[in-house]
Amino acid sequence: MEVSNRLIDLQNITKIYGETEVLSDINLYIRKNEFLTLLGPSGCGKTTTLRIIGGFEYPTKGRVIFDGKDITNDPPYKRRVNTVFQKYALFPHLNVYDNIAFGLRIAKMDKKQIALKVGKMLELVNLQGYEKRSVDSLSGGQQQRIAIARALVNEPEVLLLDEPLAALDLKLRKGMQLELKRMQQALGITFVFVTHDQEEALTMSDTIAVMRDGKIHQIDTPKHIYDEPKSAYIANFIGESNIIRGTMIQDELVHFCGQDFVCVDSGFDKNEEVDVLIRPEDLHIVGTDVAQLTGLVKSVLFKGVHYEMIIEAGGFEWKVHSTVMAPEGSQVGLSVIPFDIHIMRVEKEESDPGGEE
To answer: For residues 133 and 55, what is the distance between their CA atoms, to the nearest angstrom?
Structure first.
């Protein structure tokens, strides 16, 4: 990564409220034109990190560098950054046009240029013809688009989004995920997005930073975080997981469920205790004569594109996603290829890895 491509650089950021440390020595850089998501449960520090980037909070320790310049102590209005909050904070006494134009008028831009910019923004968010509408007459999704248009019309280099989809219903939220990604790609600006929703993060992001207890635990592409989580906490937070304790016999050989399995991981100590991750879609139902594990189907749920089965095998209840349904109560075989067995080091301090709010 070339330093010149770094737009925002958070260096050793710590934030303390009273006696509570909410951010602990955060180091994070954000590239130009990147869609980066801060992902984690409530209280993990993701919104505080966003507010420090925006200038709404100042770090107790550390520096915020923007395009090579130290802006740690600059107020929000001096930063080339705009923010869209979870509560859209639209002005109810102004119509759609005037809400979007508000910042441009503050900047004393001439009327013709304002009209041109507002028109382009309404086109971008697919709300042409809504100029004279009251914002109170709009749906939640439409209000959110106006809030985004108002933030973007000032042409910030960075748009900060603090759980902006949380108030929307499921169908609208999924549609807006695609819309936000489309806008970001069309405008070519940097988006920093905060969410606790793993699907949102996986759908939209170029990069995900998974946070917990005021620290970043892993930062990578969505695919790499899903396929190669560094810990049981991250594996459970990103996607559904089967995690079982095992022993790394040697490089590329792990022992669990009473037998040895070939894997592709290395770099562990011999006979090191490890966590073994196998995603539900990576377990395959096969004949018992060719199976690595045999077991009993405890339950079956139809989930639309696949069946979700709980299969007890090797002293463990495995969650299996498959387009092939095995009836409840039947004996089946399970198989997994070495590439789909992922080995993780055991966390020193383990707490509930479920990542629930």
So the answer is: 32
Q: Between residues 107 and 21, which one has the greater pLDDT?
A: 21
Domain that holds residue 128: 3-227
CATH number at residue 339: 2.40.50.140
Domain's final residue, options 205, 227, 249? 227
What number of H helices and E strands is found in the chain? 8, 20
**Taking 50 as the threshold, does the pLDDT of residue 355 lie above it?**
no
Average pLDDT across the chain, whole number: 90
What is the DSSP secondary-structure string of 242-266?
EEEEEEEEETTEEEETTEEEE-S--
- Kind plus residue range of the DSSP H or E element containing 115: helix 111-124
Q: Give CA–CA dist 349/85, Å, rounded.
A: 34
pTM for the whole structure: 0.84
* pLDDT given for residue 3 in this prediction: 53
- C-alpha of 101 from chain center: 31
140-179 in b/e form (b: 16+ CB < 10 A) is: ebbbbbbbbbbbbbbebbbbbbbbbbeebeeebbeebbeb
Tokens representing residue 347 in the block: 């966390």
Which tens digit of pLDDT belongs to each residue from 222-256?
999 999 999 999 998 888 899 999 999 999 999 99
Return the residue matching tokens 């041109």.
116
Strand partners, 26: 13
